[in-house]
Amino acid sequence: MVEIADKDVSKAAITSYADWNAALARAFFGRDKAGELVYLDKDDDPFEQACRDVGVGLNDADESLARAVGEKLCWKQSGRAFFADFDLMTKSWVARRRNAIRDSIEIPPPPHIALLVLFSSAAERMGSANIDTGAAESSYYSSLEGLLGIPREESGRFRVSFTKSSEAYWESLSLWLEDQDGQRGLPSAYALMHRYVGLPISQALVRERERRNLKKMFEEQGFLPGTAVSHIDMHGAIDVWIASARTTANAVLRKMWASTELQNRIVEIALGELATWDGAGQLGGSGQTLPGQKNQRALLTLRDARVALRSEMRFGLMAGPNVSPGDMCRIEGLDGAAREFPLDLIGVGSAGFDFRAVGLDVGSAVSGDLQIHLSSGLKLGRFPKKVVILTRDAFSAAYVESDRINAAVLSRLLVRDEPQLVAAVQKILSDAAQPGFAAVPGGTGGVPRGWTVFKDVVLLRAPEPALVTGSDLSAFQPRLSTQMTISGGLKLPGRLPRWSAFSPIHVIIASETDDPVDLAILTRNAETLQTEETVISRGLSVPAVVNLTDILEGVDDFTLSLRRGKTTLQTLAVKLRSSWVPSPDCSQRFRSLCHDLGDPLWPIQAVPSEDAATPGVDGIAVSGAVVRYTPRKVASRPDWNSQGRVDPKSPPLLVAGPPADSCIVTGRHRWNLPLFDGKWPKSRWMYGVCTQCGMSKRHPTRIPKDQTSRDLAAPRKNCAPRRRVCHCPVDSAHRCTVLPRSRIPPRILNSRAPTRGLSNL
C-alpha cells in the first residue's frame, strides 16, 4: 500500500510545481476516500488543505498554481510542443511504476495531479459563467488559456498539444488509483463525447449535493447496481425525472438541465456515478414506498444452494433501507401462528432472510400477502405478482426482484402456473431472448408448486408489441435503446470491476432497432499512455453476441466503444487479471495473519500479525502459554422430553393470501405515473408503477398525431364516469370521447380545471 508521507511545511509560500503536486496528492487521495469517486473539485475541503500545506492563501491559489504549471510549459521559442515536459514526466513515471511493480515496492503518485486540478479549475470558472448558455468547447479553451496567460497567437498550438496529450494525464491518475485497488479513491473522469474537454468538465460541473440527487434518481427510476446503461437510456431517465412535477432534483440541477449542451455532460457524470453505485441501503428503486402503499416494500430473492449433493433454488426476502442485519422481525400467518427471528446479512448493506431457514412455507410466502413487523416499529410488505422478474445482483450473488426486465442482463422469471400465462411468456422469450433459457416446473429443483421458473434468460431486444398483452406481461417492456453488457467469465472481487483472464467473456449487444452498429476497442499505449483505437467490427447486425477471447489475445486493459455512425452510444471498461501478471504493491497487499491469544475469539478469527497483542498461532508455528480449558461431556444421543419422544419439527408457517379486492385478483392495477405540469419531456417513454404490487408498465409521454386524429374521428360513446376526462358541468347533457390514461396528453392530465372520474383512470 502506498504511503504518502506528510510534510512539515513552513508558513512561507512554496509555489513550485513539485510541492503543489505532492500537497494535492496528499489532500485529495487519502485513505478516507477508499471506495469513493474522487473529484478534483477546487471548492472541496481537500483543496483548502493543500493550500495550507504549501502556505498559499485560498484567494491566491489559482494564480499560484497557474504560475507553477506555467513554468513547465514549453513556449514557442523552445520549438517544442506546449506539454512536452509533461509528456516526458509521463514516460518517466511509467518507468518508475514498472520498476516498483517488479520490485514489489510502493508506486509514487503520478506527476500530473496539480496539472489536472488546474484543468478542473478552468472548467469550474467556465461553467459558472456559462451555466445558461452551455459549456461549449471553445469556452473551456478560453477559460484555460486565460488562467495560464496563453497569448492569442499561441492559442492554436496550445489547443493542438492539449488535445494530443491531456487524455494521457487523466489516464495516469486512473492507472495509479487502480493500482491502489480503490484504497485511495476511484477515478471519476468520464467523457463519452468531446473527450478532451469533457474530462475536466466532469470534475467541476456537478457538486456533491447534485451527485447525491443523481443517486436518488437511480432509486426512483429503478436502476440496478452493477448494470450497464447506455447514454440514450440514461438521458431519457434523467429527462423524465427532472420534468416530473414531483421531481426530487434540486434547483441547480434543474437549471443546468435546461441547457442542451450541459445535458450530455450531466449524463456522462451520471453514468460514472452509476458505474460505482453499490445501492447500499437502496433496492434499485423497488424498495421505496409509493403513494398509496402502507408499508415499505421488500423484494423477493432467489439463489442457488447445494442440498444433499443436489442443486436447488432457495427463495427469500430482502428488506429495504433503514433495516440492519440482526434486527428482530415477526411474521404472522394463518390460525394465529407466527415466527420471530433476526435478519441476516445479504449482499452489501442489505438485510433479509431465507424462507425455508426461518420456517416459512415457500409456496404461500411467494403467493401470499407477506407482512413483516420489525422490533423498531417499521413495517415491511411484499405483494404477490403473477410474473416476477428476478435480476442477477452482483453485490448479493443472488437474483433480486425488479419491476421490469433489463436487456442483456442475466435474469430469471417466476411465473404463475397458468397455462395461458406460461405459454405467453414462452412466446416472448422465443421472440426476444437469447437461446438457451430453460423452464423448471413447480415441485422440482426447489420451485414451489403452482409456479414455473425460467432460468438463464437474457433479453436481446424488446419483444413484439403483439406478444405483450395484458398488464401481467408489462414487465417485459425494458428501458432499451442500444446497449452492451459483459456476460460470462469470472468476475473478481474488489472495488474495481475485473475479470479473470482465463475465463472467456463475451459482449451482448441489445437494441430496439435493427440498425447496424460499429464496435471499437480503445487500448492504452504502455509507454506514453496515449489512447489507441482499433475497430473490431463494422456494420454489426444487432442483437449480437461478440466473443472477445480470440480478438483480444494479449490485451489486459481496454475500453469497448459502441457506435452508430459518428455517434458514440456507450463505452465499457474491461480489465483482465491473472496470476501471470504481477500485482502492484503485492508485498503490502498480502499480509501475514495469526491468531491473537489476547482476543477472546482467537480460535475462530485471525488478525494481521502486526496488529496482534499476543500472537500465538501463526501457520504451523505455535507460541504462548498453554490455554486452560474445562472438559465437557457431549451426549451421544439427542435430549428426550418427558414423554420419551423426540420433539417433532414444527410445520412451516402458512402466509395469508392476497385480499379479494387486490390487483392480482381483479387484474386492475393502480398506476402511479409522473406528472409533468404542462412540460414535455423529450423521452418517448415513461414508466408507471402499481402502488399495490409494484408492477412496472411503460407508457408513452405523448400521443402520435395520427393516433390522436383516429381517436377524435372515432364514433363517440356515452359518458363513462370511471374512464373519462371532461370539463363539462356534471348536470350537462353531452357526449364525450373516452381515452385510456396512457393516451391522454400531459397538458390535460396536469390541468387544474375541474375534472371528473380521474381517480380510477
TrEMBL record:
It comes from the Bacteria. This is Uncharacterized protein.
